[in-house]
């Protein structure tokens, strides 16, 4: 990469932001090329970057002057003002929040699925990436769709506490310790107690709807990603907040158009570089959150079919939500945008 390129990481102190720094280091980006930004709460906080230590600055519209690429790992409300500010300053912008995922003027890009959009003519300079669960779902469905056609996918997503960012992680820590000492905690980051509990609500509900925004997002994002290629499988299900820290689990039932033996489904999943098939249950080999930390591959296993309904494939998958499902999409999309001439 040209050494004059300047990259701003906004939300650098967060769960996704810290993973972005790790991915940029892997890409050979130097500390001189980086500006770390967050809200005034984190002004002057120091973060390690390789051998160096960088101070976080409070973001202002002026922060983007001279910046070529702005990676936004911020809440949607912040992204809605920061993305246009960075765009106006001439930067390419990749946003990890839900702010632009439904905006037809902003491409929704999963770099392992539709990278071609990043080289095509664009209306603006803002690009959005899908949620962690959508990243996993689309990655799982894509090779099955190509080989057999997919009618629908029914999902139960077991969403870890880090989906709610730094405050989600610290709330699970505090509640677990408090409950073990006999203290009943007050929920703040989650709608109900998360320690030693399961909560069938992740994020807010849609207005006048039984679906949460998280669940509705899977349908919307799948429609945008698959829709551009033709047929969109119906994707629906339940998001459950679970008391693990990192790594989302997905129990998925996929209905195929052309039924096949389970070995053929497994072979199709193995063709995808985005996936790692861990499927030897007799040897206790299957996907688990504890195996996926910092693994760029989505783990998939427990493949099964019923003889009476071979068109339904049942599987279990795990994605590193902060890394694969957030930071890596931001960095991979950003690096490709920097390769464009304009
Ligand atoms: N966590 C996941 O698994 C995941 C996966 C994919 C996508 N995402 C999306 O990525 C984004 C970040 O999520 P996260 O989990 O990393 O959240 P987080 O841990 O809460 O971090 C949020 C970051 O944004 C900064 N921030 C908050 N308000 C700001 C403002 N008004 N101006 C500038 N910076 C501000 C925070 O800075 P301070 O330190 O100053 O508060 C912090 O650095 C969200 O939109 C989320 O939906 C998350």
From TrEMBL:
BP-aspect Gene Ontology terms: amino acid biosynthetic process
GO molecular function terms listed in the Swiss-Prot or TrEMBL record: NAD binding; oxidoreductase activity, acting on the aldehyde or oxo group of donors, NAD or NADP as acceptor; protein dimerization activity
Domain of life, source organism: Bacteria
Secretion signal span: none
Membrane-crossing residue ranges in chain numbering: none
Protein family: Belongs to the aspartate-semialdehyde dehydrogenase family.
Protein name: Aspartate-semialdehyde dehydrogenase
